[in-house]
């Protein structure tokens, strides 16, 4: 059911700067073990400002995003706690938190602030320690591993507990929803569905292997040979890559980690005052919200958000050159690709098996490696996707730049089984 009609921005807004930390396990390296959120966020913020050709004095306002700030950092106002780390003393700011969709809505917040005419230059970024949780009894730089048991316990905060028992649907059921629906809808065999999900992982890892910011940088083909397998598919179906749910193998689940990313936006007409790089215009952002216990959350929410942004912008699916889609369950690549019209309905699975969605294919998806290979720093991951899209559209990704320089990119955000976003970016000539 159509719910919202979007209206054009009061003035055009473009991204003029992006910055991103490596996605990493900070506690596993003595050089990074003592990093604080201020240092991580500040690194990304300064990189974005440097990329835009501006300094802190040029920023009118900033937004700070974190998926779970109290759980992750023991702050209720983390935007204030990090301001000193990137020259924002005294500047106005807002913190926001929308689980794993936070990074996409970081762009939404910034664009709206500039489009309204209130501010000219806005910084928006996100930070997350997805692998290292704060210890409330120790200083902020001393953390402990955010192990899977603690992580699973924190997920109960996502679900509506007024009418349902916490986690009644269970994480495995939620993770399998997209794959189960797709297989039933289009009649794939168990082997075809398994091969599709495996090939998504292989393609994503090929992209991550060439990305200096990615967490996992070794291709599965190489890993297979190290373990005595000449056939990568044989390895991917072995006990080295077990099924963790009814559908998803280990290669299809997120690698939660630590990281930060940031972006700078300004009115498109002012971009040349700061940078000689081509501005990346934000044509529109569609949004939808659904709750985790509802069936087909991702499918229906994506459909609504995409409808909104296509109707607003007039962009056609065939104009999309690059798709970025958050995939903490790797099935999300398939759902997002078909719901946006980037791949044909019921046929998208074949593109993954044929390798056409890798960075060097004709239908590239998640060229940074996605959540299962680039890593998933929760709130920061959405901005990292925007960072990747901007770098690809500028042609600044080196040997992993896609074959056809993208002019138009679709970014599909999804997080916490609640918020969904559909963003269309276009290079401004």
Rg calculated over all Cα atoms: 20 Å
Straight-line N-to-C gap: 36 Å
Give the number of DSSP strands.
Answer: 11
**CATH fold descriptor:** Peroxisomal Thiolase, Chain A, domain 1
- The percent range for helix content is 25-40%
The total tally of domains equals 1
The ordered H/E elements are: EHEHHEHEEEHHHHHEEHEHHHEE
CATH architecture type: 3-Layer(aba) Sandwich
Explain what you see.
This protein has 429 residues and is of the alpha/beta class. The protein has a single domain, classed as Thiolase/Chalcone synthase (Peroxisomal Thiolase, Chain A, domain 1), CATH 3.40.47. It has 13 helices and eleven strands. It has helices at residues 37-52, 69-73, 78-81, 102-115, 148-154, 171-186, 190-208, 220-226, 232-236, 297-313, 332-339, 348-353, 379-394, and strands spanning 13-20, 61-65, 93-96, 122-129, 132-134, 143-145, 258-267, 280-289, 322-325, 408-415, 419-427. The chain has a nine-stranded mixed sheet, sandwiched between helices. Strand 5 and strand 6 (143-145) form a beta hairpin. Helix 10 runs parallel beside helix 11. The model is unreliable at 167-172 (pLDDT under 50).
Features:
Peroxisomal Thiolase, Chain A, domain 1; 429 residues; single chain; 9-stranded mixed β-sheet; two-stranded antiparallel sheet; 17% strand; 11 strands; alpha/beta
Can you summarize this structure?
The chain is of the alpha/beta class and 429 residues long.
What's the layout of helices and strands?
Elements: E1 13-20, H1 37-52, E2 61-65, H2 69-73, H3 78-81, E3 93-96, H4 102-115, E4 122-129, E5 132-134, E6 143-145, H5 148-154, H6 171-186, H7 190-208, H8 220-226, H9 232-236, E7 258-267, E8 280-289, H10 297-313, E9 322-325, H11 332-339, H12 348-353, H13 379-394, E10 408-415, E11 419-427
């Amino acid at each position: 059911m159509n719910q919202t009609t979007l209206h054009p921005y009061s003035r055009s807004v473009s991204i003029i700067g992006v910055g991103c930390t490596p996605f990493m396990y900070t506690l596993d390296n003595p050089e990074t073990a003592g990093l604080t959120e201020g240092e991580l966020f500040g690194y990304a913020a300064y990189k974005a400002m440097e990329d835009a050709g501006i300094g802190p004095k040029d920023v009118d306002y900033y937004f700070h995003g974190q998926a779970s700030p109290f759980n992750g950092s023991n702050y209720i106002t983390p935007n204030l706690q990090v301001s000193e780390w990137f020259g924002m003393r005294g500047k106005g700011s807002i913190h926001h938190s929308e689980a794993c969709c936070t990074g996409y809505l970081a762009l939404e917040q910034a664009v709206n602030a500039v489009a309204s005419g209130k501010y000219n230059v806005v910084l928006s970024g996100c930070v997350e320690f997805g692998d290292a949780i704060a210890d409330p009894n120790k200083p902020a730089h001393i953390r402990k591993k955010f192990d899977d048991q603690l992580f699973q316990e924190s997920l109960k905060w996502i679900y509506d507990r007024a009418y349902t028992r916490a986690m009644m649907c269970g994480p495995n059921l939620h993770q399998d929803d997209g794959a189960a629906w797709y297989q039933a809808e289009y009649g794939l065999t168990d082997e075809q569905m398994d091969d599709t999900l495996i090939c998504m992982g292989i393609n994503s890892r090929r992209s991550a292997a060439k990305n200096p910011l990615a967490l996992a940088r070794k291709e599965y083909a190489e890993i297979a040979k190290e373990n005595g397998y000449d056939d990568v598919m044989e390895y991917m179906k072995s006990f080295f890559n077990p099924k963790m749910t009814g559908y998803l193998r280990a290669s299809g689940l997120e690698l939660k980690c630590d990281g930060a990313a940031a972006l700078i936006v300004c009115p498109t007409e002012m971009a040349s005052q700061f940078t000689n790089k081509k501005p990346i215009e934000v044509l529109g952002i569609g949004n939808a919200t659904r709750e985790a216990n509802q069936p087909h959350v991702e499918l229906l929410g994506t459909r609504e958000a995409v409808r909104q942004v296509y109707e607003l912008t007039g962009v056609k699916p065939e104009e999309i050159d690059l798709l970025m889609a958050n995939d903490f369950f790797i099935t999300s690549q398939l759902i997002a690709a078909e719901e946006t019209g980037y791949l044909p309905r019921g046929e998208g699975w074949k593109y993954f098996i044929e390798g056409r969605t890798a960075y060097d294919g004709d239908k590239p998806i998640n060229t940074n490696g996605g959540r299962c290979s680039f890593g998933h720093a929760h709130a920061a991951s959405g901005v990292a996707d925007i960072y990747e899209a901007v770098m690809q559209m500028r042609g600044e990704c080196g040997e992993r730049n896609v074959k056809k320089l993208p002019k138009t990119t679709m970014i599909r955000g999804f997080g916490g089984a609640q918020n969904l976003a559909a963003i269309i970016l276009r290079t401004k000539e």
